[in-house]
Amino acid sequence: MPVTSAQRTLVPAWIRIMSALPKTAAEVARGKAAGWKASRQLTRRRRPLDWKETSAQSIRDQLDRMAGDIGRMREMRNHLAYPRDTNARSQEEQDILHTIRTRTREANSSNITRTKAYYDCYREYPELHWSFLAHMVSRNAGWNMSDLKGGLMSDLMEPSAREDLYRMLERCNALIFQDAYPQLLLYSHSRRLGRSLFHLLPSFGVSAFMSPFWDRFWIERDSALLAIGLIINEQNYIEGRVVQNGYYQSRVLRKKAFSMHSKFQMNQVVFPMLPHIPELEADVFHTPEEKSRIRESAGYAADSMVGLILEQFSSLNERIAFGKALYATLFGYEDVLSGVHSFASVVEHRGSRSEYWPQLFTHDKKNALNSPLESVELMKQEWLPGGRRLYSPLLHDVWHDLYSEPIPRYDWFKNEDAIHYVSRPRRPLMIEMTHAHRNALQKTALTHDVGRAVTSTY
Q1: For 365, phi and psi rounded to 5 degrees?
Q2: Which of 8, 143, 287, 319 sits 20 to 30 Å CA-CA off 237?
């Protein structure tokens, strides 16, 4: 049988892909060693998490009593399903409810607006630790959404699979915001008025689980305890509405394309860090593109990042433990919090990974790398030259805002199953992710190249 020209071209491609495998394996081994060394440096200066065990035990006892009071729980669930605001509230409280609902609806239009709203809230009230954690996790959600239309992932999934995964990521991001942001705004209004407004939580469909946390926070300002409460609440909030939803189970979570994220460790949550850059932090005049060029020309890149890997998204237990570990990583170490603060204050979130690695990614598709051997290109050098960088689009360039579907109104807190999660967060030790993140990118690129080579065969 004669050999076609396409097959002759394919042979060198396969040789180059296979020759990159030993080097990739060696890089993984070196990366793990470097990650441990860098982690030891980052974890030397610990920040007190100020966890008050007596307060935590008091909340656990209160939640236990609430879970055992079947009549009260039924009354609370009925209130969430059929809220009655107008007759029982003063005009001032009705105005506050209207303002919060309006602000939440406006800020919940996209991942970009949600991420900004979280950060603005944290800047105004830095005691709201969870808001900064949510800001950084929401950045990761935006990057994951953009990846689906980027230079690597777009070739690995069918268009329908990309659409379904985007819908799930967007749904989780929007639902958590819809539930949590009114709580943050209630705190803001409470601060402004000098009195607690947390009796209004049920008016926003907030679980009864959160009432003891906010009541305690209003008195003691226990940031860690409130953050853990919100982590538990929000993961339970999406458990029934998304993770156990039949549509997402059949169209996303049970699909091979989703399991590939775990296989290649693409389910990383990373917190890029920057050195302190006073001139850019105070700069309100330059556009994001100009700031990026200034950072790149001055050598300011997120050459260090921390984070963790979520192995099983479908597991509620793992998601809660993961959230608690992320919180302890972000707020448990001085150097980490300082570096992530610098990044968040300087780099505007627009959904492209070029925000933290501009020497590796670009959101300009015309000048992006378009090679069937992108894994080989990545192995050649640490950074890629201009015109040869990986395509990571801006979120609004590749995805449209989705119509907000109705949210089922019910309280997930029906028994004592979640109470044991109210415990002290533990600081992880292996937190440096720069090399692991680069290796995950290399694996994705290798899968991309193999897929293109196989496609070229037929």
Answers
A1: -65, -35
A2: 143
70 φ, ψ to 5°? -60, -40
- Between strands 390-391 and 361-362, the pairing is parallel
**How many helices (DSSP H) and strands (DSSP E) are in the chain?**
18, 4
The helix (H) or strand (E) run that includes residue 217 is: helix 211-220
For residues 16 and 374, the answer to whether their CB atoms sit within 8 Å is: no
What does 14-35 look like in DSSP terms, one character per residue?
A: HHHHHHHHHHHHHHHHHHHHHH
Record the pTM.
0.89
Instruction: Output the DSSP codes for 316-358.
Output: HHHHHHHHHHHHHHHHSBHHHHHHHHHHHHHS---S-GGGT-T
Residues 432, 309 contacting (CB under 8 angstroms):
no
Length of the chain as a residue count:
458
How far is the C-alpha of 56 from the C-alpha of 59, rounded, in Å?
5
DSSP secondary structure code for residue 370 in this structure: -
Instruction: Choose among 184, 324, 338, 185: nearest CA to 274.
Output: 338
pLDDT score of 89: 80
Dist. CA 454–CA 458, nearest whole Å? 7
The span from the CA of 361 to the CA of 388, in Å, is: 9
Overall average pLDDT of the 11-34 stretch = 59
> Tokens for 231?
């982590």
CA distance 317 to 237: 13
- Assess contact for 137 and 340: CB atoms under 8 A: no
Q: Which two tokens stand for residue 214?
A: 């906010």
Within its chain, how far is the Cα of 115 from the centroid? 9
Name residue, tokens 């892909």: 17
Beta bridge partners of 238: none
Look up tokens 């570990």; give the residue: 325
Instruction: For residue range 88-130, list pLDDT tens digits in order.
Output: 589 999 999 999 999 999 999 999 999 999 999 999 999 999 9
Closest C-alpha among 348, 353, 375 to residue 363: 353
CB atoms within 10 A of CB 456: 14
